[in-house]
Amino acid sequence: VAHCKRFFFCGQEPFVADEYIERLAWRTPGGGSRGGEAFDPKRLLEEFVNHIQELQVMDERIQRKVEKLEQQCQKEAKEFAKKVQELQKSNQVAFQHFQELDEHISYVATKVCHLGDQLEGVNTPRQRAVEAQKLMKYFNEFLDGELKSDVFTNSEKIKEAADIIQKLHLIAQELPFDSLMGFCCYPLSSPGKYHDLECQLIQEFTSAQRRGEISRMREVAAVLLHFKGYSHCVDVYIKQCQEGAFLRNDVFEDAAILCQRVNKQVGEIFSNPETVLAKLIQNIFEVKLQSYVKDQLEEHRKSDAEQYLKNLYDLYTRTTNLSSKLMEFNLGTDKQTFLSKLIKAIFISYLENYIEVEIGYLKSRSAMILQRYYDSKNHQKRSIGTGGIQDLKERLRQRTNLPLGPSIDTHGETFLSQEVVVNLLQETKQAFERCHRLSDPSDLPKNAFRIFSMLVEFLCTEHIDYALETGLAGIPSSDSKNANLYFLDVVHQANTIFHLFDKQFNDHLMPLISSSPKLSECLQKKKDIIEQMEVKLDMGIDTLNCMIGQMKHILAAEQKKTDFKPEDENNVLIQYTNACVKVCGYVRKQVEKIRNSMDGKNVDTVLMEFGVRFHRLIYEHLQQYSYSCMGGMLAICDVAEYRKCAKDFKIALVLQLFDTLHALCNLLVVAPDNLKQVCSGEQLANLDKNILHSFVQLRVDYRSARLARHFS
């Protein structure tokens, strides 16, 4: 089998011994694998032995072949290694020859360079001598007054003529006039011929520009580069570029398109394209834009402040946007400063007093918005107190509920308008945007603070604060019947408005002052406004007195003595009294109104105060009656309903007070033998004994000796 494996592994298919033996047995007669044929083990063994011998012979033959191939491989490897060594030696020799050749080439190159320098040293003076000879020839023609050379008579050779005249002009200027040579050369040093040729070149440049011949323009500009009139050539180019460029109403878009077109062309014509493009932009700003801006602004500067500010903001914005587009072009090293100076030159006279115009307009506009609103209400504004926070706190301490003098009837009007607020905030928003764009960076925080002060004055003081003062003055006295509590509506609207004010403070003012000392001033001013409004809201706590007064009227009108001491103890059909139903309904409405009118901690503060007063009212109200057994049960049902109502407050203290009151009412019905046990319960154990005694005294059976003995 091993011999078989060695043989068959040389093939492509894997060798499987079992299959090989099976096929061998199948081919052997008597192997037992053919059907109907008797099994002959001896014959099968003989076949196996013969086959093994054949395989051994084959293995030996293959082994000899392998050994022969290995010997041949070793021989060829030695020959290859020897050949590689010979090639390495040849390569080393070639490398040495290459180094020698390189050194020889370097030596020859040095000699050639030296020879070139010598030839150049001889040729340069020769060329100068030739040039000098030509100049002397042309110089003689100028002295004779007859220009015969083709270079002066052929108009197509104006470039060569310009170069000759430029050189002769420079030579003539260096000679003193009082010498004979200088006198003779005066015609060349005078501006006559020089100026004539310069004019011819500029005229040629102009004609080429009109024909659109860029290559000719480039040639003439290169010649004029050495003349004094080169700047005039640039001026002519700039002037002709603008012909027909400003035909639309949008001068800024026209300027951007013109600069973009010239930027592509100027590099093909002039050797200093950035200077030419910068001069074009300067000309556009100083002539076209400045004239356009002046026409737009001077028309409204004194007559219409609103339109003037809008135009100023729009023109400045469009100018800076144009400047941003021009920043893409190559204008030299400091193009940002260059463009900034151009913009400043146009707007400096308008930006110097911008903030004064802004504040003046904002003040008059805000006053007009407010006055128009009050006129629509047929309301004449009353003067309000100008006292500070301390004055307000003193008024709060004294609980003065008439801050404007006698109580006034507002007829349900809150004197707050979201339309007015939106208009004021919109005007201020636009002012902040203009301030951000038009103010110098060093003046930006200061100017933004002044605009914010205007907003505070007209929105917070003249509108919100005035409405709060008017609302406080309209709070009815606590003994008024059917009083309308409009102050909570004022609080609700003031709260909504202040949220809008706070949003504008964060969105539009904060980015302008966030990194300046004015930030602390603005935050302090905002804090003072909030504190002043909260103080006035606290003063409006007198509204709670009116609520309690209304509840007293309900209880006085609806509660009857027979409710808690019915004539027929066995015929009580109600679960709680009518007074309780009406009071709870009123309280729930007021709680909802308070929640809708305020937010944050103010809600909990006012509801806690209202809940404590509500509890005190019910406590004192229950003390006014005597209670039979059934009446006591009805009182407990009433207090249970009051307690449900107290849950709407969502104030732990208020709910605890009513839980205690409910426990006290149990003293009205508990059996005399259980009084001490009930009084020592969890809710009543910490109460003063006099309070417990006062409730027990309300029982109709208190005079009985048994009850008095148990409670003593």
From TrEMBL:
GO terms for biological process: exocytosis; Golgi to plasma membrane transport. InterPro entries: Sec10-like, Sec10_HB, Sec10_N. This is Exocyst complex component 5. It comes from Chloropsis hardwickii. One of its GO terms (cellular component) is exocyst. PANTHER family: EXOCYST COMPLEX COMPONENT 5 (PTHR12100:SF0), SEC10 (PTHR12100). Residues 52-90 form a coiled coil. Residues 41-149 form the Exocyst complex component Sec10 N-terminal domain. Residues 160-711 form the Exocyst complex component Sec10-like alpha-helical bundle domain. The keyword Coiled coil applies. The gene is Exoc5. The keyword Aminoacyl-tRNA synthetase does not apply. It comes from the Eukaryota. Pfam families: Sec10_HB, Sec10_N. Keywords: Coiled coil, Exocytosis, Transport. Belongs to the SEC10 family.
